[in-house]
Amino acid sequence: MSEDFNMSMRKFLKQVGVTSQQAIEEAMRNTPGTEGKTFEAKVVLTVDGLDLEHVVTGRIAGDGQS
Asked: Which of 29, 40, 41, 64 could make an S-S bridge to 35, C-beta 3.0–4.6 Å?
């Protein structure tokens, strides 16, 4: 893959990671009773023009900051 492709991929994935973390943190702050709870999370990645659907699942633990 080209250097331009690699750079655009890294930039996109960094944006996804940073904005997703911010959204999750805000939701945790704005939702009472999240302390000590574990939340099931799922991300579905699709790319227009490609036959791609990539699913990532996991758990996020409440940190007691809410």
From this structure: 64
